[in-house]
Structure formats: structure tokens, C-alpha cells
Amino acid sequence: MEPCSSHPSFATIGKRNILLIGGGFINTLLQGILSMFLLATGFCMGFIAFAYKTLIMSDIPISFTVSEALFAHVLFLIATALICISLSTLPSNAGRGMITGSLILTIPLNLLLLPTNLPGDKVGVALLQLAPVLHACFLSAAGIYLFIANWRKSIASQKERAIQ
Q1: Domain limits, the chain
Q2: Are 55 and 72 a contacting pair, CB within 8 Å?
Q3: Helices (DSSP H) in the chain: which residue ranges?
């Protein structure tokens, strides 16, 4: 068995090219599966956090404890971390662009759901209402940054291949 000259993750046995274990295709496939799992888990956690925040805020008058508000913030933090890790491990820029675009579209929806009397509310209520907006804004900014950074890498690698 000798390495194939056309692709480093293939080997040649006789006249057949076979995929080596741990090759580029398998690693990319596993990376894609992992990033999709993290993305789905992050979106589920974000939905649970949004539903929990809505449940807390539906009390009339608003009377929630600090631990309930803190739990909602922790849920949003976990969802943000999972989605951010998923965005950074996505193997393709096309998927990263689609996810970032959908996150950008959620910002106006979250702004529409904000009550208009935030300055008159308590600080805890205002922070709890702003959590989904900040969550979507941070993820959109991180997605745009990763999209541009990987786009620059692909352009640099294309120029490097053109020179060779």
C-alpha cells in the first residue's frame, strides 16, 4: 500500500484508491455532524430559554425571584455558547452564512416582542427582556466575523494555489 499522489488521505492498492481511516472526508463528515448536533442543541436551549423567560414575564403583576431570572440568563448563555461553538466548527462557509442570516432575521422579531415601557420597569425586568435581543445580536456578530475570516482564508488559499 503506497500513498496516492493526487490526494493525501487516499492510498493505492493495485489500481484502486481507498480512503484512509481518519482521512479528510471522514474528519469533515464528523465535524459537520458535531456542528449540526451543537447547533440543534443550541437552538433547542434558546427556545427553552425564550419560553421560560416568557413564562416568568407572564405573571401579572410581574413577580419573579432573582434565581428565576438568573436561571433564564444561564439558559441563554448555554444556548449562545453552543451555537457559537457550532458556528466556529462548521466546515463550510455556506452553512455559516445561512445560519448567520437566519439569526439576523430574528433580531427584528425579538425587537417587536419587547415592551415599550422598558425605562419605567425595574432593572431586572429590563435585563430579562433584553436577553434574547442581546443573544441574537452577539451570535449575528460572531457569525459575520467567522464568515468574513473564513472567506479571507479561502481567498488567500486560492491565490496561493494560483501561484503554484
Answers
A1: 33-163
A2: no
A3: 24-57, 66-89, 93-112, 123-163
